[in-house]
Amino acid sequence: MPGRWQVFVVLLSIAWQLNLISEFLTNEDVTGRLEKGHVSALPSYDVVIGVLSARGNHEQREALRETWAGNILKHPFLQNRVIIKFIVGDQPCPIPPQDRLDRYSCEPDALVDPVLDQDIIAYRVPNGAVGFHTYQGPLGMDFRVNFPVVITQLGVFDSNSDGLQSGLTVHLYDKISQEEILGASFTPEDPGELIGGSRFKPVDQFVLPKGFEGSIVAENFTSSDPSSNDPMMHGGLDNGGGLISFHRVSRFGVEQGVFPEHEERVYEENNQYGAGTFLYRAHVTDGEFSKQKLEERRKDVEERKDMWHAVLLREEKELQRELRMYDDILMVNVIDVYRNLPKKLLKFYSWTVTNTRFNFTLKTDDGLLC
């Protein structure tokens, strides 16, 4: 027979689970969904159709209303069995398309005040920094090139800045193809030059083009030559005035010499690992970043910003007109750019299960149907 202590533990477990169930059932959102008659009171459809649409796609939406979408809603057999919603983000991107990091996002072009005519350490570590991380597999950090840069040296973390006891290897990978672009080996006999808390070796100078997505990876850290996984100990990042951007992604792998595919999201932009690094400089053509050119660029940016603001005002006015005339636009709480399509779709599904009863859902795009 079970002892008193075992019985007490079982009863305590049951009480804890009953408490969780009670909290769940008394949650306001859940209570609302479980109210008697709530589900049966929802409108019922055979098919709920979600059409992904951009804020400025007024003509595409009108074309659909005048063709198959309008025909469905006027059809005596289908009009009460099918509902169509255009899924539109409720926030425009205030950045002109030409001044975004890429055409899919709403991030500004990071190139603000580029550092010229000097080598820059991308991932900095202070002299004397000590590591305690002995993972031997590849450790990487991701970055993006905003303006062509030349990689001049590769570097590796030297715990305590006192020389290497074993061999370490650094690879610079193309993140998209996962192919190595550059590599360097560091040994006790040939450790490279100590700069700060990392050792560097020259490599064949290689130009990374604008838009390049890369990862700097180092491997074979042991107890005698550990890496660091404490960002508070690192010296931070240097983007060269916007020449490169650092992704909030670190990565690790199992097999050395292979691109590490396992990603870890970093909540702050920081030097996640004391591991690999590199020296780089802007790849500048004659006069490209003269004082006059930079001033002209800033002026152009301001002019485009004013013009884009006027475009957004016209879009908003037209969108408000549509909202007054039709009941077929679902405004969802996202910035309306291509990269947010998954978020728009998830919010459409959430709206569908909360506000309707249905047999099927269909997702499409107004660009595919016009």
Automatic annotation (TrEMBL):
It comes from the Eukaryota. GO terms for cellular component: endoplasmic reticulum; Golgi membrane. Its main location: endoplasmic reticulum. GO terms for molecular function: hexosyltransferase activity; UDP-glycosyltransferase activity. GO terms for biological process: protein O-linked glycosylation. InterPro entries: Glyco_trans_31 (IPR002659). Pathway: Protein modification; protein glycosylation. Keywords: Endoplasmic reticulum, Glycoprotein, Glycosyltransferase, Golgi apparatus, Membrane, Signal, Signal-anchor, Transferase, Transmembrane, Transmembrane helix. Its EC number is 2.4.1.-. It catalyses: 3-O-(N-acetyl-beta-D-glucosaminyl-(1->4)-alpha-D-mannosyl)-L-threonyl-[protein] + UDP-N-acetyl-alpha-D-galactosamine = 3-O-[beta-D-GalNAc-(1->3)-beta-D-GlcNAc-(1->4)-alpha-D-Man]-L-Thr-[protein] + UDP + H(+). It is found in: Endoplasmic reticulum; Golgi apparatus membrane. It is a single-pass type II membrane protein. It is an enzyme of class 2 (transferase). Residues 1-21 form the signal peptide. Belongs to the glycosyltransferase 31 family. This is Hexosyltransferase. It comes from Desmophyllum pertusum.
